[in-house]
Design a protein that fits this description.
mainly beta, 10 strands
C-alpha cells in the first residue's frame, strides 16, 4: 500500500521544493561614467516558483547620491541578465514612478576573464515597464560600462 501511494503521489524533490533557491545573482563594485565614479551592490534569489527577492544600492560620487531598492524580477538570457525592481530610498523613490531596471554580464571569474559589464540604472519608471524589461520586451538598451572594481556573479 505504501509503495502504491508513492507511485501515485511521488515525493517532491528537495531541490525543487517550494521556496528552494534555483538561481541567484550578486555583485558589487564600481565603474566610471564620464568623470563620475558609480558604485553598486546587488543580490537577489529566485525560488522554484519564480518568486524573486533581493535588493540593490547605487551611489554616484559627486552626483545624485545614493539610491536603494528592492529587486522584484531578473531573467538570465545567456549573454546578459535583465533586472527590475523599485526604488525605496533616494531620487525617484516616490510612487507611482519609482521603478527601475538595469542589466549586466558576468564574464567569468579570475584574472584571465574579461571585465564584467553593468548598465546604468534606468530610474523613474512605472511598474509595468520594469516587469516588461525582465520579460525581454526591450532588451539591454541602457548604456553599459566595464566594471573596473569588483565582481558580478550568476549562480
Amino acid at each position: 500500500v505504501v509503495v502504491a501511494a508513492l507511485l501515485i503521489f511521488p515525493l517532491a524533490s528537495p531541490a525543487l521544493a517550494d521556496g528552494a533557491v534555483v538561481q541567484s545573482i550578486s555583485g558589487s563594485g564600481g565603474f566610471f561614467s564620464g568623470e563620475r565614479l558609480r558604485t553598486f551592490t546587488f543580490t537577489a534569489r529566485k525560488d522554484a516558483d519564480g518568486n524573486v527577492t533581493g535588493h540593490w544600492t547605487r551611489v554616484v560620487k559627486t552626483g545624485s547620491g545614493p539610491n536603494h531598492g528592492e529587486i522584484t524580477c531578473f531573467e538570465d538570457y545567456g549573454d546578459y541578465v535583465l533586472v527590475g525592481g523599485f526604488v525605496n530610498f533616494g531620487i525617484f523613490s516616490e510612487p507611482p514612478f519609482n521603478w527601475t531596471n538595469f542589466w549586466f554580464v558576468d564574464n567569468g571569474q579570475g584574472g584571465s576573464a574579461d571585465p564584467d559589464i553593468i548598465s546604468l540604472h534606468q530610474l523613474g519608471l512605472p511598474a509595468f515597464v520594469a516587469e516588461l524589461y525582465c520579460a525581454n520586451e526591450f532588451g539591454p538598451v541602457i548604456p553599459s560600462f566595464e566594471v573596473t572594481q569588483g565582481n558580478i556573479q550568476v549562480h
